[in-house]
Design goal:
This protein is α+β, with helices and mostly antiparallel strands and 601 residues long. It folds into five domains: 93 residues, Zinc finger, CHC2-typedomain (DNA Primase, Chain A), CATH 3.90.580; 119 residues, DNA primase DNAg catalytic core, N-terminal domain; 124 residues, Dna Topoisomerase Vi A Subunit, Chain: A, domain 2, CATH 3.40.1360.10; 58 residues, no CATH class; 149 residues. It is 51% helix and 11% strand. Helix 12 runs parallel beside helix 15. The radius of gyration is 27 Å and the shape is globular. The structure holds zinc ion.
């Protein structure tokens, strides 16, 4: 087997990284001091007295050897410090480096933005015509005032087959792009017709205020009450937050965001002066949504309807949201996540209208997320029995043991022992036991390693640093199973594209396609990974192969860290650094012993 791969073109990400020096960028935020061939600083992500944050100018990387234990390249540094997402960080650094980002997508999609804008204007106009009276009556009936109508740009989609299509066609838009915008569908007889008709139209905008789709409500009691634009290149229900462009200032002013479920909850809240409210449009918060909020505040209040599917469903949705936070932040303590449960049968819209003082009180006293979960779990079991107590602890254990902040952890162990009426020590030992039982066990590799002793893996491919991670990423994508992501930590990837694609893939919803949510700057590399995939034989796609690859990546990563420490220590290392050296060496030895035949480069 002889496999040849073409190299990649030098793309904008590489260019940006070439033109910028991580030392310059880091110096903007941190007080760096020279330490051997590296630079040191107090870690900006955790509190410490002696510096354990090391920047390596040669590899252009950084790593915190203290409590965080995370690291990355210059782009990752800006993402974390500025609390912005990948695309935003790239834009910022591109400007600084004087590199033109090839934003094909904004050109590619500009027609879709135009169509949505024209449709918005069309619907608004229709609302003013006699045919729109029914929608106006509905707006009045719901108690929405003119200001709300103005700010949220209500409209009306007329009855009939193709009122909007005709309008858009007369403006010069072509059928295929109108269909692509989701505003029209093709019928069996090949004619196209309007997607929305006879509904109150509520434009959905992205964070910069561009119309990207619509929510639409019926004017009577028929079902479905709400429909929205199907997924298009510019609209994905799971990435957008309804009301964000309007709420942006309110979120910053209040330094908190209230996330509700429906359009009308947001609109009513704003009408009554609660300016920091947005809606997740019925889904649990996704990584994309969290990332667009995180640049504005760290205080999240989730207002959940309690009636829709019961407390168990609320819990499930919260757990998903929590996982998103956990993955995205690494350190959960960075964000204050709390919950407000609406009284049964009430949503924020009705609560604000009928019981304003109660709403104010609830919103001012949200329950911290973990406490909410503990209460909900306790409610499920009979905590007077010892088996009930055991079940409660078992279910709560992962949450408490994974806490980063020891004071927080301490607090919840106390809380739990109080609620269960048992001694603190009992809870602690039950937590420890429960976690030991669920620890992940890796398959023994000794046998396989021996079998392959004389046959190094993929020896016909030159093992360059980037190739190893490109190849691993391709295998991972091809194998699909998310459980495999446990083996790999995004820090192992040195190429920004791999790191980002890995994170996107790991946090991907079941219904989403990776290619659809890829930002333009990653597309080139993603295609390259797919072309590698096409060349991987089936024999290279199994857990063992992947484990070997991940071991090699981890090994490389650990060696880099080891070198960072060695080349930075001129004086006596801090306790924190000393600890991580010990851990590093242990881990390196472990991999060495297990995989001594991997031929690790
Ligand atoms: Zn740190």
């Amino acid at each position: 087997m002889s496999v040849k791969f073409k190299g990649r073109n030098l793309e904008s990400i590489d260019l940006i990284k070439q033109k910028l020096d991580i030392i310059d960028i880091a110096s903007d935020y941190l007080k760096l001091t020279k330490a051997g061939s590296n630079h040191k600083a107090l870690c900006p992500f955790h509190t410490e007295k002696t510096p354990s944050f090391i920047v390596n100018p040669e590899r252009q990387t950084w790593h915190c050897f203290g409590a965080c234990g995370v690291g990355g390249d210059v782009i990752e540094l800006v993402i974390k410090i500025e609390k912005i997402n990948f695309a935003e960080a790239l834009k910022m650094l591109a400007q600084r480096a004087g590199v033109q980002l090839n934003n094909i997508s904004s050109d590619k999609n500009s027609r879709l933005y135009d169509i949505n804008l024209e449709a918005c204007i069309f619907f608004k106009t229709q609302l003013e015509l006699p045919e729109g009276n029914k929608a106006k009556e509905y707006i009045d009936k719901r108690g929405l005032n003119d200001e709300a109508s103005e700010i949220f740009e209500f409209g009306f989609s007329p009855y009939g087959n193709s009122a909007l299509v005709d309008k858009l066609t007369s403006l010069g838009f072509k059928e295929p792009e109108i269909i692509q915008s989701g505003l029209a569908i093709k019928r069996d007889n090949n004619q196209i017709r309007d997607f929305f008709y006879g509904r109150l139209m509520i434009p959905i905008k992205n964070s910069t205020g561009k119309v990207i789709g619509f929510g639409a409500r019926v004017l009577d009691d028929s079902n479905p009450k709400y429909i929205n634009t199907p997924t298009t290149p510019v609209f994905d229900k799971k990435s957008v937050l309804f009301g964000l462009s309007v709420a942006s200032k309110g979120i910053r002013d209040n330094d908190s965001v209230v996330v509700v479920e429906g359009y009308l909850d947001v609109i009513t809240a704003h009408q009554f002066g609660f300016k920091n409210v947005v809606a997740s449009m019925g889904t649990a918060l996704t990584a994309n949504q969290v990332s667009s909020l995180k640049s504005r505040t760290n205080n999240f209040i989730l207002a959940m309807d309690s009636d829709s599917a019961g407390r168990e469903a609320v819990l499930r949705s919260l757990r998903n949201t929590y996982r998103v936070f956990e993955r995205q932040l690494g350190q959960k303590s960075e964000v204050n996540l709390s919950v407000v449960l609406m009284p049964s049968g009430k949503d924020p819209d009705t609560q604000i209208r009928n019981n304003l003082s109660e709403w104010k009180k609830t919103i001012a006293n949200p329950v911290p997320f973990v406490q909410f979960v503990i209460d909900s779990i306790i409610e499920k079991y009979d905590i007077n029995s010892s088996s009930g107590k055991g079940q409660v602890v078992g279910e709560i254990a992962p949450l408490i043991t994974h806490m980063v902040n020891p004071f927080e952890q301490d607090h919840y162990i106390d809380l739990l022992s109080g609620k269960l009426g048992v001694k603190r020590e009992t809870v602690e030992s039950a937590l420890a036991k429960s976690m030991a039982g669920s620890a992940r066990k890796r398959p023994a590799l000794k046998k396989l390693a021996n079998q392959n002793k004389d046959k190094p893996l993929y020896s016909d491919v030159t093992l360059k640093e980037n190739w190893l991670e490109d190849y691993t990423m391709s295998v991972l994508l091809k194998m699909q199973e998310k459980t495999n992501s446990d083996m790999i930590n995004s820090d192992y990837f040195r190429r920004t594209e791999n790191r980002e694609i890995y994170s996107l893939w790991r946090d991907l919803n079941e219904t989403d396609k990776l290619g659809d949510i890829m930002s333009v700057q990653l597309e080139g590399h993603y295609k390259y990974l797919l072309s590698i995939q096409g060349n991987i034989p089936a024999s290279g796609l199994n857990k063992e192969a992947l484990l070997q690859l991940s071991d090699r990546l981890e090994y490389r990563h650990l060696q880099h860290l080891q070198r960072d420490i060695l080349s930075s220590s001129e004086d006596i290392p801090s306790r924190e650094i000393e600890d991580s050296v010990i851990k590093l060496n242990e881990r390196i030895k472990q991999i060495d012993e297990r995989n001594n035949s991997y031929n690790i480069k």
